[in-house]
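Workshop exercise sheet. Pairs work together: one partner reads the sequence aloud, the other fills in the structure field after running the prediction. Swap roles for the next sheet.
Pair: D.N. / O.F.
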Amino acid sequence: MQSSPAPSEESASYRLVRHRKCDDWGRGLLLWERDGKRSYQFEDGQVRVFAEGFFHLLDPLDDDDEGLSEALAGLASRSGSGRGAMPVSMSFEEQVGNFMDEYPGGFEGDIWQTRHRGRGERRPLKRHREPLIESAKANLKLQDLQGLAASERYGELRDRIGSVLRSSDLVPKGKLDDFHRMAADRRVATALIDVVEHEQMQAERFDELRASFGAAGCKDPGWALLSSLLAIAHPKAHTFVRAAVFEVQAPIVSLTVPMGARPSAVTYPRFLEVARSVFGRLKAEGREPADLFDVYDFMTFTLRPVERTKTSEPAKKRKRPAAAAAPKPAKPRGRARETEEAPVERDFEEDREVYADE
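Structure field:
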């Protein structure tokens, strides 16, 4: 058995643990982490909550035992005692079925490419991912950012990154305003450059990004702002996080995410694990996403309440749309067009968008 790490270490985020003094409890699965506490479902059927001063009693185990994780997640869901653990809303097969009903060509099909990636659009919408990724490549060149920092043009560096975020639908306007209002100093510039330079997000790097924002006046950057910076810089390696979506998705792939958790180096890997798991399952079925933006948009669409309701309908009542895309409606002109943000994809627990997790 491994020795227990200090609670502040990244390894403390292990999903599976065993209490070193209560072997008869069996192994435990992390259900949530918030307010300095963690909740675990144990094999003896009990859910137990531990304060931070007792984390050292929980020895981490091998996280690769998917059968055990699935069994414990199911136990927590059936008992209703998880105190925030989300029940399984549908099977992954049903989720993919809902996706294929709407997008019969999959991620490479014309409907998905036009609606989500922005293929062929001369005037892209904020939800389109390809223009966002291209903007990030053009404006976040490492050498250019390092040059701005070397000449102490920290405000210009911050605003350059902010302009990329403003071209997307990822971050609420209030958070973007906070980002632009925060003091631009060397610490913030260094943290932002580290995100762009290093695809591997080390624990200390993530926490320094959050801490530097706080010290500069952006006191509560939240999931949307912090994770969007990772995602636009490295869309194949990092995911945008909207906690409400991941809380529903996690149990479908036999994982858990800490409910109501604040952004940190301990909690972010749990959300990233969910996105990578969905990516891997889709790839195994021959429906490989282009990147983790595709994964996030797949989750957001298929987990909308209307899509989850479909899973209770008999299959014969579900109508599959024709493969051909419907003719595009006329596009409104001017500023009004900015609000055309695919309403069918944006009604996922809309009351949480501005944000329960922010």
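Discussion prompt: Confidence is low (pLDDT under 50) at residues 1-13, 314-358. What would you look at next?
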